[in-house]
Write a structure and sequence with these properties.
- α4 (76-95) packs antiparallel against α5 and α9 runs antiparallel to α10.
- With 519 residues, the chain is mainly alpha-helical.
- The chain is globular, with a radius of gyration of 23 Å.
- The protein has 2 domains: 3-199 and 253-509, Growth Hormone, Chain: A, CATH 1.20.1250.20; 200-252.
- 79% of the residues lie in helices and 1% in strands.
- Residues 498-519 have low confidence and may be disordered.
- It has helices at 3-8, 10-41, 46-74, 76-95, 100-128, 131-162, 167-170, 172-186, 200-223, 228-250, 264-294, 299-305, 311-326, 328-346, 356-382, 389-423, 432-440, 442-450, 454-493, 498-502; strands spanning 189-190, 517-518.
Length: 519
């Protein structure tokens, strides 16, 4: 496949890449809707529920840099196809998991596939589209990534109302199958034309350091942020990641060149993405529970009511035009400010507020996310050479995953602490096991309330819902503060580069060595 053919097929290639990507976003939120069902059908504890979500995050985040570098070295199309095959097999295994522990393991396997898929899609896109069109293509890419997040709860809710919980994983089968077949025909292979030496030491250090970091973040809400196990994980992460940086500075062919971080465009955009995903993942994690446990919607009804955040699907592609007018700096900062304002609105609701305020918040959250994600991602990819697009894409994805995991952990910890404090008086007189369960989460409190006499059960349920909403209000304020901090970082450090790039006279892809592209 020559360059003219690739250029002519670029929008078809983007469509296939987006189809490959949508399963990643879909998988994140479709599972959140199923969490209450897993409590009932698999007897999953609160800790197991968190690990069903976070085993995927842990493996995904730990492997991203390594998989991105391997894609640059051996072929991005190869990495994409391999990732989809692994993701497909792990999805089928997850659907038929016999226990919560088995599901945790199969979700971890899905993380391996995801770590291969996501950086491959963005790095292939970057090599296919010329600089003049790249911002628009990345906007569409970011919008589709958000689309998976939006439609996940709706599809998950529908499947849970009509089938068993395992169907939320089987939805991946037809999507991946179509993407594999179409990708074989249309997507070109690309790789770094310079066959540099592998960096196994750097790969092991990045996996160990990122894995320890994400593990510490995940476990902190359970053990406490000052617990010895949590501090040990963070200490290991600090030491190993410091060794990783030292090795990459010393090695002749590092998989991640540290001089990338000297570019404020690369670094500030990475921080912005980390902060916005912190806010989004943490708030959505709580909101799906609020809609079901407090407003008493079914999984499908809850999924439909998350749909206003689909505004990000519109905002992300349009952000390229905004960047052309005002630059990346103000576009990203404005997006983060809108996210912060939306979460502040969410913090004001009560258990009697109803859905209206939530809908307004979701529209704002989606608009802010769309205006932040696409230009920040374009800033990261545009600051790196094409030959390193796999590593650049992996760095972009790593910031998303670490930010998201940290958001769920920190915002979840604030909620848990506030909820438990509020429930202390309401559990007096209950058997010790029931009191402990009711103080653990609103879901288990409602289950306990259902086994009590009518008056006592209603009182406990009302108190649990009120305690959850109060805790959620405090928790999302943390997310709002982080998003606002991200806006200040973008204003201070992110160069305003959009208008200048848009004026560059590129109307064809950049030249690529013949050995770099093939079928």
């Amino acid at each position: 496949m020559n360059q003219e053919q690739i250029y002519a097929r670029r929008w078809w290639i983007l469509a296939i890449l987006c189809l490959s990507l949508v399963v990643i976003g879909l998988d994140n939120t479709i599972l959140n809707v199923a969490l209450p069902t897993l409590v009932r059908d698999l007897d999953a504890s609160g800790s197991q529920l968190q690990w069903i979500v976070d085993s995927y995050v842990l493996v995904f985040a730990g492997l991203l840099l390594t998989m991105g570098a391997l894609g640059d070295r051996f072929g991005r199309k190869l990495a994409l196809n391999l990732g989809m095959v692994v993701f497909l097999g792990a999805s089928i295994a997850s659907a038929f998991a016999s226990s919560a522990d088995v599901l945790i393991a199969t979700r971890a396997a899905m993380g391996i596939g995801g770590a291969l898929i996501m950086p491959s899609t963005l790095s292939i896109l970057t090599n296919v589209f010329p600089p003049k069109e790249r911002g628009q293509a990345i906007g569409i890419w970011a919008g589709v990534a958000g689309l998976g997040i939006v439609i996940g709860p709706v599809i998950g809710g529908y499947l849970l109302e009509h089938f068993w919980w395992g169907s939320v994983f089987l939805i991946n089968v037809p999507v991946i199958s179509v993407a594999l077949i179409a990708g074989y025909v249309f997507i070109p292979e690309s790789k770094d034309p310079v066959l540099a030496r592998l960096d196994p030491v750097g790969a092991l250090l990045s996996i160990g350091g990122l894995g320890a970091l994400v593990y510490g973040i995940i476990e902190a809400p359970n053990h406490g942020w000052t617990d010895g196990a949590t501090l040990s994980a963070f200490a290991i992460a600090a030491v190993v990641l410091t060794l990783f940086v030292a090795w990459e500075l010393r090695f002749d062919h590092p998989m991640l060149r540290m001089e990338f971080f000297e570019n404020p465009r690369f670094t500030a955009a990475s921080v912005s993405i980390t902060f916005v995903f912190f806010a989004m993942f943490g708030s959505i994690f709580l909101l799906t529970q609020y809609l079901q446990f407090v407003l008493d919607y079914s999984p499908l009804e809850a999924g439909i009511r998350v749909m206003p955040v689909a505004s990000l699907v519109i905002a992300a592609p349009l952000s390229a035009k905004v960047v052309n007018k005002v630059g990346s700096k103000f576009t990203v900062a404005s997006g983060l400010a809108v996210v912060a304002l939306s979460l502040f609105i969410l913090s004001t609701i009560s258990d009697a507020s109803g859905y209206g305020t939530v809908a307004i918040m979701l529209i704002g959250l989606g608009l802010g996310m769309g205006m932040t994600m696409a230009p920040a991602t374009d800033s990261i990819m545009g600051s790196l050479p094409l030959s390193k697009s796999g590593v650049g894409s992996a760095m972009n994805d790593t910031t998303r995953m670490v930010g998201g995991a940290l958001g769920v952990a920190v915002i979840g910890s604030v909620l848990s602490s506030a909820y438990s404090s509020s429930m202390a008086g309401a559990t007096v007189g209950l058997p010790p096991a029931a009191a402990s369960a009711a103080s653990d989460s609103v879901g288990t409190a409602l289950a306990v309330a259902g086994r009590l006499p009518a008056d006592a059960g209603s009182a406990l349920a009302a108190t649990a819902r009120s305690a959850f909403v109060d805790g959620m209000g405090s928790a999302v304020l943390v997310g709002a503060g982080v998003a606002l901090a991200g806006a200040l970082v973008a204003l201070r450090f992110l160069p305003s580069t959009g208008r200048e790039e848009a004026a560059l006279p590129h109307d064809r892809p950049e030249p690529v060595e013949a050995a770099e592209v093939g079928v």
